[in-house]
Design brief:
7 helices; hypothetical protein PF0899 fold; 4 strands; 2 domains
Length: 204
């Protein structure tokens, strides 16, 4: 299950990077057009004004360059959120498809067993989607064996999630969220940072 999620994560990053690169190329074209217009205006002002006024024309040119860079960075960072939301939607759709595969169901056993090691006590409770609870119930013996007979498995309540599980102690005082939504959500800060670097790196 981990490798499947990791592959999806990598595809999200690559897809988002491709979208970001396309936006940067378009923004650079726009930037170059605006800077060329600013240069031409600065040159015209310098030609038309007296020699001592050339410095003012150059200052106006630099001010325009700064304003153009600032505005483009603002626009690109707004686009970043759009890219992230699109990537998020695509990831959830792909995860929905993945939860129907044999590899996913087999991975549930490993996920539960590995997460259970971090829960103290002689019992663990597992909450998951309705479909996954049915699968967990059918694999209860296999899961119990993976737990090494050290912990009793308690089947919990249905969760509104695509896949993955919540593993807790019997009283749910300690809950480890291993649902897909939580794991993909933790990817967002990494995605934001990477896209900010891509989107604004060429506009310095």
């Amino acid at each position: 299950m981990t490798s499947g999620l990791e592959n999806i994560k990598n595809r999200i990053l690559e897809s988002a990077k491709e979208d970001a690169a396309a936006i940067v190329r378009a923004a650079m074209d726009e930037k170059n057009k605006k800077l060329q217009a600013a240069r031409e205006e600065a040159g015209r002002i310098s030609f038309e004004m007296l020699e001592e006024a050339k410095g003012e024309a150059e200052i106006r040119y630099e001010e325009k360059m700064g304003a153009i860079r600032t505005e483009l960075k603002r626009q690109l960072l707004t686009k970043r959120e759009e890219i992230i939301e699109n990537a998020w939607g695509e990831a959830l759709e792909e995860l929905k498809r993945y939860t129907g595969t044999p590899g996913y169901r087999a991975g549930l056993v490993e996920l539960i067993a590995s997460t259970a090691q971090r829960v103290e006590g002689d019992s663990i409770r597992v909450d998951a989607s309705s479909a996954d609870l049915d699968a967990i119930l059918s694999m209860k013996g296999e899961i119990q064996e993976a737990l090494g007979g050290k912990k009793k498995l308690i089947i919990g309540e249905p969760l509104d999630c695509i896949g993955g599980v919540e593993v807790s102690d019997a009283d749910r005082k300690v809950v480890l969220d291993r649902t897909y939504e939580a794991r993909i959500r933790r990817l967002k800060p990494e995605l934001r940072s990477e896209l900010a670097r891509i989107l604004t790196g060429g506009l310095g």
